[in-house]
Design the sequence.
């Protein structure tokens, strides 16, 4: 077989897309499917565009009470006492709760499928009882006839605090003199290391090493070492958190909520309230964005406790300031990264020291940051140290490719600097150093077939890269990024209806069009139209355990479950046809065009046999259950054109192209939507988004007026080039697509800004004030 | 014979060895064999007989859902990694 360098590629429009939607095609190779790769209208589209879709805040129940959460005004304080008596006496108040109304928790680890949680820390994050560790930390809650009564009563709760000094910066927090947030935290050295024995803010220290790093740098002709910082940023989902709960007198708890994973909510509620998971039913409502931020519980256990105390259903909603103050952002960071290259531009060694904010409790994405920092390149010698450090900010949570965007800023900026110093084209450098199948990351894992090289080839062949960019203060940059993706547990049940359609139920909440992409995979196997499958997302009592919609796993893993369900249906229908024809089922084939064929030219269509189920044994239900573990990682490379206003420092994005290996695009429109959405978030992170804290630890910009996410006025129509290097771990070759597009933008923007201005930006966000400061400094 | 990649923080137990060949047909047996050669290794990766919370095993580049029960082939490559949470 020819090496990848010898194969012939071209970039062409992706059928059915807009002019900006393209794909990389290898000569002589095009996927051949009937449903996969087409663009049917999403099954939930009408409900969503007409406003009929029901979100968490839409829930109305008989006797429903409204709740309000009292939050800490201090970033760091010990709780001396809480007196709720005055609040409880307010007319219209039905329940007041504090941490004392929850079962106590101990230090055990909970596996949320995609990551771990310490139950004691989660208990303390839901309602603090010992210390508050960030402004907005929940302390108590009230349920009343109206939210206004609940708020008024909550303000009568008397909390006596012993205010302590906060620490907000990771470098300060790991110092010997820093105030320690959690007396129970010791440095856990990973993987497979030992645990420290003194209280500290440094919760984890990850260490990876490969080859002879010192020799690698000694062999380099050029070594560049730089420092980088990023600020705390939020996922910025539009729908705030919401939870409604009813704790029935028979001990059963029902929770209606907006979540990425109803089964993870069930697990957390059950564990924190010390009830069996079978006693908890979680009803997932439509979700207005999550991006990793709607996996952990905040309101759900509190609403349940208030319901138990009041005997009535209770709804808790966050407002925008609550979301910023108290829900998981992605961490700010400090990074020092060094890369060496030989005279031909081949990387000889890499070294990284990474410090990530954990927030109030351990759990930053420092480990994936460590594993991603050199993931795009064949680095023969590498050393990586990463630290998870507690600071007085909200407990950090996942955000699209957690940790990878941070480190890509560092690596990709240094790569660009190397190209500049050695006079190498950034595309040529990446083609030369890109990882391929069989290459080993610094953490030791060897890559299966991956498409990093192909994404760069697509950049090289793209109209964007080949079009000149002219004019003053303008520049073009590229950057690459990696994300692992995930597999995990998924279950699908599919019932054949008498009219030849299929009702599909699944447990994956639909964030990015996965009802459609899962239904399409079942339709492809059965040979029917995607429109003939009706997908429904159901509650935790109605389907088997399904992991979160996150980690870019749903189209892959729930799609695999749908394929298995379709294959189960095929097998059952072959038996039914055999019964009708009085032959053995082995003599019946399920062929193209949804037609079953038997001996002597017998045929019957899927639709025809669907009408004969009652007489052949009753309804046919296909089942698919997987714990998928061959998800395949994904790479992306982005091109950014910018213009920098030398008077204001404002950066305008002129043109932007996302190139990404998606394995196989099931529904290209939703793949392109993920690519564009991820890029938009990455551009916002690059240019404007940041938490502004005062020295006292109070957040000063907890609103979308002051925390600036990009709008349509800030972004061009983002172009896409889909690269399809099939994942061998999926019958159609699916890789996850949702996360990797957020990774390259900050670095691509920084590299473009350098081309436009000659200024290297190594600190996010590259906002007008910071940009102008650097421009003026560079003028001398 | 399966090969196992020793995580950097555990190389103090293996005298700096990075990759070892271990005769084993499952991850559980591989850990047992490593512990016999390098006493203390099992304590680094196991807790109450199970993989430590958050620790995962990758076989041939794929994190295996079956963990200790994952079967090994003669040419398998084994890595110990930490759970990675996506967004």
Sequence:
């Amino acid at each position: 077989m020819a090496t990848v360098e010898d194969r012939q590629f071209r970039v062409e429009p992706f059928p059915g897309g807009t002019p900006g939607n393209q794909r990389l095609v290898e000569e002589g190779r095009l996927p051949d499917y009937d449903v996969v790769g087409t663009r049917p209208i999403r099954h939930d589209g009408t409900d969503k565009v007409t406003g009929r879709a029901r979100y968490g805040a839409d829930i109305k129940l008989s006797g429903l009470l409204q709740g309000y959460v009292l939050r800490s005004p201090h970033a760091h304080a010990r709780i001396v006492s809480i007196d709720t008596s005055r609040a409880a006496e307010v007319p219209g108040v039905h329940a007041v709760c504090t941490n004392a109304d929850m079962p106590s928790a101990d230090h055990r680890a909970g596996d949320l499928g995609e990551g771990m949680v310490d139950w004691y820390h989660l208990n303390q994050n839901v309602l603090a009882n010992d210390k508050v560790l960030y402004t907005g930390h929940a302390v108590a809650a009230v349920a009343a006839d109206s939210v206004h009564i609940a708020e008024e009563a909550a303000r009568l709760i008397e909390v006596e605090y012993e205010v302590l000094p906060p620490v907000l910066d990771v470098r300060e927090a790991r110092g010997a003199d820093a105030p320690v947030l959690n007396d129970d935290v010791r440095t856990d050295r990973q993987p497979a290391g030992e645990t420290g024995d003194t209280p500290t803010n440094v919760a984890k220290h990850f260490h990876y090493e490969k080859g002879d790093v010192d020799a690698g740098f000694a062999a380099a002709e050029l070594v560049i070492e730089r420092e980088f910082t990023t600020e705390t940023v939020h996922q910025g989902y539009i729908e705030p958190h919401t939870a409604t709960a009813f704790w029935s007198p028979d001990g059963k708890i029902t929770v209606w909520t907006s979540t990425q994973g109803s089964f993870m909510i069930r697990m957390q509620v059950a564990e924190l309230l010390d009830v069996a998971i079978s006693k908890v039913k979680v009803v997932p409502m439509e979700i207005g964005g999550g991006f990793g931020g709607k996996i952990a519980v905040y309101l759900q256990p509190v609403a349940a406790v208030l319901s138990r105390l009041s005997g009535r259903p209770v709804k808790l909603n966050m407002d925008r300031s609550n979301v910023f103050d108290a829900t998981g952002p992605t961490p700010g960071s400090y990074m020092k990264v060094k890369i060496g290259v030989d005279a031909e531009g081949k990387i000889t060694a890499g070294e990284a020291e990474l410090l990530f904010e954990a927030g109030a409790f351990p759990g930053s994405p420092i480990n994936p940051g460590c594993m991603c920092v050199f993931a795009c390149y064949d680095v023969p010698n590498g050393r990586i140290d990463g630290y998870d450090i507690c600071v007085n900010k909200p407990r950090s949570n996942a955000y699209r490719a957690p940790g990878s965007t941070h480190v890509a800023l560092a690596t990709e900026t240094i790569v660009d600097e190397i190209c500049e110093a050695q006079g190498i084209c950034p595309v040529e450098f990446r083609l030369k150093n890109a990882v391929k199948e069989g290459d080993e990351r610094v953490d030791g894992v060897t890559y299966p077939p991956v498409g990093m090289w192909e994404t760069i080839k697509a950049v090289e062949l793209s109209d964007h890269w080949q079009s000149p960019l002219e004019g003053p203060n303008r520049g073009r940059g590229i950057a690459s990024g990696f994300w692992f993706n995930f597999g995990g547990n998924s279950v699908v049940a599919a019932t054949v209806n008498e009219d030849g359609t299929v009702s599909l139920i699944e447990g994956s909440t639909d964030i990015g069009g996965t009802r459609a992409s899962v239904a399409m995979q079942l339709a492809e196997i059965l040979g029917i139209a995607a429109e003939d499958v009706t997908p429904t997302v159901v509650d935790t009592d109605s389907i088997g355990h399904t992991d979160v919609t996150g980690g870019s796993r749903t189209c892959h893993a729930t799609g695999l479950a749908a394929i298995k369900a379709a294959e189960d249906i095929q097998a059952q229908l072959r038996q039914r046809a055999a019964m009708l024809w009085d032959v053995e089922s082995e003599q019946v084939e399920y062929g193209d065009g949804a037609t079953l064929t038997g001996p002597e030219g017998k045929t019957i269509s899927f639709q025809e046999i669907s009408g004969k189920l009652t007489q052949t044994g009753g309804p046919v239900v296909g089942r698919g259950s997987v714990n998928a573990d061959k998800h395949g990682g994904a790479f992306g490379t982005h091109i950014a054109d910018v213009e920098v206003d030398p008077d204001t420092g404002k950066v305008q994005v002129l043109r932007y192209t996302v190139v990404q290996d998606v394995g196989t695009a099931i529904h290209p429109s939703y793949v392109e939507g993920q690519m564009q959405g991820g890029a938009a978030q990455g551009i916002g992170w690059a240019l404007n988004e940041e938490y502004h804290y005062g020295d006292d630890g109070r957040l000063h910009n907890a609103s979308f007026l002051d925390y600036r996410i990009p709008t349509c006025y800030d972004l061009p129509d983002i172009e896409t080039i889909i690269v399809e290097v099939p994942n061998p771990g999926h019958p159609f070759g699916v890789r996850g697509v949702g996360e990797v597009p957020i990774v390259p933008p900050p670095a691509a923007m920084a590299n473009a800004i350098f081309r436009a201005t000659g200024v290297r930006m190594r600190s996010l966000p590259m906002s007008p004030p910071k940009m102008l400061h650097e421009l003026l400094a560079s003028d001398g | 014979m399966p090969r196992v990649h020793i995580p950097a923080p555990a190389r103090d137990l293996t005298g700096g060895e990075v990759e070892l060949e271990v005769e084993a047909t499952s991850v559980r047996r591989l850990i047992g064999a490593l512990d016999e050669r390098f006493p203390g290794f099992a304590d680094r990766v196991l807790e109450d007989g199970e993989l430590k919370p958050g620790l995962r095993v990758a076989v041939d580049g794929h994190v295996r859902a079956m963990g200790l029960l994952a079967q090994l082939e003669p040419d398998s490559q084994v890595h110990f990694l930490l759970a990675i949470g996506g967004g």
In short: The mean pLDDT of chain B is 94. The first strand of chain B starts at residue 3 and ends at 5. Strands of chain B lie at 3-5, 19-21, 46-47, 50-51, 55-59, 62-63, 77-82.
